Batch of 4 targets.
Target 1
Amino acid sequence: MIDLTNKEAVEELVKSCVKNDQKSQQIFYKMFYGKMMTVCMRYSRNREEAQDILHDGFIKVFSKLKGFENKGSLEGWVRRLIVNNAIDHVRSRKDFYLQNGEDDFADHIADETNDMIETERLKQEKAEKVISLIQYLSPAYKTVFNMFVIENMSHQEIAEHLEISVGTSKSNLAKAKMKLKELFEQHFRNDE
């Protein structure tokens, strides 16, 4: 494996991949497969769909690799492209819809429930359980939850990416957190 902190090694790998060197592309793919598959799983309904998203994402990564300037993190750059591809995929699905109700209390709920489910405050085991429960959320709730909690995007960024209002983003996040709390209590009440 290549040391991603070694700028020269990263630069050589990128150059080889840009030249369509299959061995280098295979190394590149294997280097990021696990982490990027995890990202895709958070935006998909199942593993098969996640693999499709990942495959399409890597096609975009390889086609845009020439533009990577090696100034920031290669992993961060790849992750951003994979996340954007996953978001585009979710938005294009026929079953994806957002509840566009501008509830007056959405801001209030979002603020109050913001601390309910914070994966960074959960123990590793509980965090993994919460991540697995994300699969049970509706596509709209899952997407907004992932973008806000996992990808650290603001409601404004989410609204722009998904072409929804900031209020809808906040409302969907609040509802996702409430649903996750409910699922967590149902599934893991007896684990403690």
Target 2
Amino acid sequence: MARKPRKKIQVVTEENQSSEEQTRSESPSNSPLTRTNKPVTRLSTRLSLSRADNNIETIDENSARKNFPKKNTRKNQTANGKTSHISKKLKTTTNTFEEVDESQLNQTDIDYIVPRFPSIQSKSKLRSKNRKASQDDVLPNQNNNDPNQENNQSQSDENLLNITNVTERLEATNKILEQIKTKQKLMESNYNTESAKREQTFKEFKQISEENFQNYERRFSQLQNNQKREEEHKLKTKQISTLEHDLHNEKEARHVLEQDLRKEKEESKKLINQLQQLKQEIPQIENSINSIGDLKQTIKRLEFELRQENENNKKLKRELDKIPTQLDTKQLEILSQLNLYQDLSNLLIQNVKIVSQVEKSFTCILNGRNGSLVFKLTFNGDEYLYEPCINQERDAELLKILPDYLREEISFKKDNSDLFFWRALNFLQKRESD
């Protein structure tokens, strides 16, 4: 005979439904006592109850199959083992309910304890009726029963007794659950009252804190005003002190100016006296000015004469250049003159190169206190060209003090040759103190 799969049916009384709805409506949304939509039961109770249902079905099958004693003996033995296991499980669960303090239970414990299975008492009644009907059907064959069938009958009776014990214990657990639910309601009501008290205290605290905050703002504004006044007072005092300091400085400056005015008055008196003396000396100065004019005229006349003499000398020199000198005595005289000129002027003519009748070049060395300057002079008839011959290693010390105009090429007229020589010699003979 094929066994049909058993459907789990949740049997809940109207009182339990009303109590659950009331607890859900009373408990707040954030309360830890709210239940989830899914039914949650303890795993041990589920397993034990499913096993009990299976045992009941096997008992009904055994009662219906009394004609097959050999096969039913094993099933009865397993049924006895299962019922004993169920009774042990239920004993442990009922003992734990009796030992645990009910005030310590929370919502999760209640969810674990709440039965999510069909009432076994109603099923047992239906199955007992079915068993009686099956017995009535098998009455003709009762006279031929074996002693094994009697044993099966006794075992089925024992199983029924165990089932009745289970139902009694389940009723006891339902009573405990009702007590737990009442305590849950009390806890929720206490929680609601406490939350209301907390809200009230929070409102009072909020009101007090707002008042304190307003007071703090007033004090802060007063302190800010006082601080502004103090800063303004400090600024005013600082301005007054600066003004007093400026006034004191102005007084001192005025005193100094008065002293300066006195000195200037005295100096002006002295100047007036000097002016009077100068006025008296004006005729003498006019006489000296007239004498200066005479001297200027004499200077002009002498300069004119000097120019004429220079021109005459130039003409004579040109004529001398044209005349060839063949006498040795004349050369000796010229050499002696050159030596004398070199000794007097410290100018050494190192080399003479005659390019043409007009153009000549002279390599000269001018010695002095600050060093010796090597340069080249090229004469073109009317002008001289100065070209410095500077060596970086040889003239290192001279370059430190050499002016810029002697480092570059210079062209000057023949009339200004004496001025050039004087400047170069003056530089070389100049002392550091000068």
Target 3
Amino acid sequence: MIQRRNRIVLFLCCLLITLLFIPFVLGIQAKKAFTTNNLVRLHVIANSDKQQDQEVKFIVRDQVVEVLREQLNGAKNYQDALKIISKNRAQLASVAKEAVAAAGFSYPVRVELGHFAFPARAYGNVVMPQGEYEALRIVLGEGKGANWWCVLFPPLCFVDISGNALEYNGESAIVRETLAQQGIECDENEVDLRFRLLDWMRRDDGYLATDKSSK
């Protein structure tokens, strides 16, 4: 009876170690997969922190994301996404300017596509290290207000009509696809397990998406 109990305890200990080790390894792989070289981010900077300017920022965001949602639907990889955004940058600038004008403001709008510095951030369960990322940056007016960012490709977030950032409900699928593109094979159940375990372990750790980041 004692030997049987010891075997059960040993089995449970091994199982626990395995469950803790899987998210650690996959976490390293995910961080390797999501780097400054395969993400395209959207960065919208408000004219100021005044309430009206912040509201305009979200109006511009909604209009631009709605256009990009359709345009990037056919993007198969990072390079495709960049080409599509670059090709349609003039249109995106027009959309942003029209949104500002419709809101009753006349300040200038600057739309840039290039490498810009971002601090380290966690978006849901995906950690993005500090560094320079390819981004579509929209600067409204003087660009001195709080800003909003999102990952355009892979499509880790969308925006609903209420103005809230929504996590993409296929996050684990995107992680698997991006890992595969980096030559890292990963079982679907392992990735899903990683997300469930990290949700449990990081419940109060603050690993949440944010709608503000430093310029």
Target 4
Amino acid sequence: MAGIILCFTSWIFSGIGFVIYGFYTNNTLLLFFYGLAYITAVSGYTSFKANIVQYNIDQLVGASADELSAVIYWHSAAVPISFVIFQLIRCAIIGNYIFLITFVSAGLSLSVVLVSHSLFKHKLENVSLIKNPVKLIVRVLCYARKHKYPENRSALTYWEEETPSRLDLGKHKYGGPFTEEEVEDVKTVFRMLPLLISVVGLTTNDEVYHWIMSGNQSIEISYGSCLISTEFGKFFTSVVFFLFYLLIFQPIFKRFIPRMLLRIGVGLVFAVCTMFSKTVIFFLVPPDASSVTPFTTPLLYIPQFFYGVAFVLIIAASLEFTVAQAPVQMRGMMVGMWLASMGVGYLININLKYGFQCTNEFMCTNPFYYAVKSVITLVFFSLFFCLSKRYKFRVRGNEINIHKIVEDHYHRYMTQKDAYEAAPSDTVIIEEETPLIF
């Protein structure tokens, strides 16, 4: 909820910036409010993105693996669906009206979310039984550093009145103050972190330009050329494959769904094909020397198709893998690390352009730039292949806190039911709401 509030605050700052831009000429004040809007928007987006998956899963008490997988895939599909709608509208509207439409739509959407959450939050599970994962990791690492070797017990140990059990001896000798489950949770986190290199490899190939999001309305191009230059093909491909998987493939061909790591590996292969096809296109089709017009050719739909498939395979499967393998108390932290991996890839992508003199502001047309990115993605694929072959999936016998969550849920339900039945017909029962913990 804090992420939505920060995004709404960013929207307010943006509105103030629009007013200043329209009526005043104070550039310092304008940059100040736009800076505040940008900082709060990024903070709100990351906070919302890192917690919404865990929050949705907490609502599905006792849900099956297929239902949880469907939630994750619909969560991943929301991004390309919104971009498809945005790009279709953006290329159809001429002038600066797209900024006003986007601003109003964002404000209405955030308002609907805030109002709906305030009205229905009493029907949602807001009980948090998760401990601080960072504190546990630090404590385990510090204890492991100080106790590298098991300590030998004193010979006077067995002079006690009762002989200690083997379990107690083993805990004093190896376990220290932590349970075996807690130590395995920390080990699982460090085994999972290197596999996030797949997300870095995907976002390194994503093209990030100012033109794709806002555009330059003074440039007059056709509707089709606008869709090509704004990477519409990759978003549309992702939407088609997401809908095909969720509505047709998963319900009918469930047994043929490959393993998560295999899907991620195949997605990296499509990511390599994305950069290789762009390298070939810019070698075969010499771009226009002008740097003020977007480069458009129908051949660009080929790499956009490859990237759309890679997005579906890597983003959804890596998020599903992170949620499935991460310890329950560390899911939020691992989803945050998953988002941080995306940010690392975008940093590599943006800063790599400066070394190749990409003069065109709409799309880098240097074929050597894409050749280098092909090699980088191939290195990421090789590393992921080696790491995934050595990874051992962790299988838990039971979920931590799941019985406690179910017990609290039905206990609260039975208490409310007894209160309603015992109260007179003219008495209003005020339900005690569980406090929302951010």
